[in-house]
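Recap quiz, item 2
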Amino acid sequence: MSTVAPEADGLPGYNFAYLDEQTRRMIRRALLKAVAIPGHQVPFAAREMPLPYGWGTGGIQITAALVGRSDVLKVIDQGADDATNATSIRRFFARTAGVATTEDTSQASLIQTRHRVPETPLRADQVLVYQVPDPEPLRKVEPRQAETRRLHAAGDYGLARLALYEQVARYGRVRQAYNHPVLVNRGYLASPSPIPRFDNGKLDDNSALQLFGAGRERRVYAIPPHTRVESLAFDDIAWDTDANDQACSQCGSTDTYLDEIVLDDAGTRAYQCSDTDYCGRQQWGGVGHG
Amino acid sequence: MDDRPLMSADSVTCRFRGTTACRDVSLDVYAGEVLGIVGESGAGKSTLLHCLAGAVQPSEGTVTYADAKGHDHAIHGLSESALRQLSRGDWGFVHQSPYDGLRPHISAGGNVAEPLLRCGETRYASLRAAARHWLAEVELDPERLDDPVRTFSGGMQQRVQLARNLVTQPRLLFLDEPTGGLDVSVQARLLDLIRQLASELEVAVVLVTHDLAVVRLLAHRLAVMRQGEVVEQGVTDQVLDDPQAPYSQLLVASELRS
Ligand SMILES: Nc1ncnc2c1ncn2[C@@H]1O[C@H](COP(=O)(O)OP(=O)(O)OP(=O)(O)O)[C@@H](O)[C@H]1O
Ligand SMILES: [Mg+2]
């Protein structure tokens, strides 16, 4: 993030990064509040964006509110920089803000993501912005919004654990592969967005600031750097990371999140890192891997 | 029985826009007793029960609850969280319709475990053990532990509701027509179970019904309601054998005729 007011050297009345300065300020105020109350959903007056809901309008508004001229932006969709959604968002900011973009996680100051946390560990000078389709982790167990607010206020997450109880009782384990709710700073229960359960551990004690934006629901929330983040679970059942025992067919990594790819009609499968930047660096960057 | 009441209603009046659902009701509930509330449809029984349980705010009057440490709580003056704590830990509420008191798509075990989860239990094994234990206590087949309760019969659903309300070992249980809408034989067995559990667990029960046979079987003491007012209260046998208020006399006479 640039500390220089981004409009300082722009034309008066000209909007940097699509949103007008008032809106950017409003969103930043909501984000400050979100950082002050980790995991708590803060309402904000979401704007219409030139993208339909479900295409990351919440994340885009956070990025637009934070991005400065000196930022280097990376956008990923399911771990890939070249997916349609990622490409169009990256192009959008290149055009409206003129900022530099990169696919290299370590070069980026601002990373907007859908459904993944990069494999490369993040640093204190980086911000990760998640696109969130539904910010309410209790929606499945309690559809009434007034009631979910009451449950959050009381820290009453028994109902959320009831959903886990049902999974363990019926299937012998927690089956939720994506969007497994997390307790932030021992306080609020939050949706990690539909990241695979494999990634939940990366939210804990992360050096980067993590911000979450839901456009349709008009909510932002945050996990400040080095915050304790625990996946909702039972004390007597070990957390199953959902990792499989395959290796990436491209780079050989065994400790990354792998996509399963069906190669032919006979059902031959291959596994490949979902984080394309990381995978490429493992192959060509000369970094040893095991 | 203790000499100090567990719960006392003092001049409770509850109005809804035009109607006065209950008027100037005072009564006591003692530890370990079953208090029956009888009256015809619309007499205000359910309204009174909800006032006692803190779910409905009376227009006038107070309800006082003495907790296990002997501290009194004016329940309608409590904060939302303090009231929730009492109603979760110390009380149970069994509704007439199982669908008001159960989650139909959740398993029987999950329905029974939920109050413990909401009291902060985070160990799966403890939840399982409690669910198993309380389903056995209400005489349900342990094989059905993981079946969703919507697949259960009405009588079985009421048993699950009972188990769910006993799992936190409450001191006070509110029952609103728990056997309404059930076959007579199913009703009889359920009532028997309630009587047996209430005495075994030494839980106080406030039981609402319009059926005198039910209070005859279960209630130590009785309050007769008519048009929102308690017209007579006392020891069940006394009230039923020698009713004083004209309405109670009518009620007893009509029971004998039917
Ligand atoms: N939420 C409410 N809003 C308006 N009126 C109500 C409400 N609840 C109850 N009443 C009215 O208060 C009166 C007493 O109702 P209540 O349900 O307490 O009677 P009851 O004795 O439980 O009857 P039943 O045996 O049919 O269940 C009725 O006239 C009813 O219509
Ligand atoms: Mg009623």
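Residues 243-290 of chain A form one domain.
The longest helix of chain A spans residues 21-36.
End of item.
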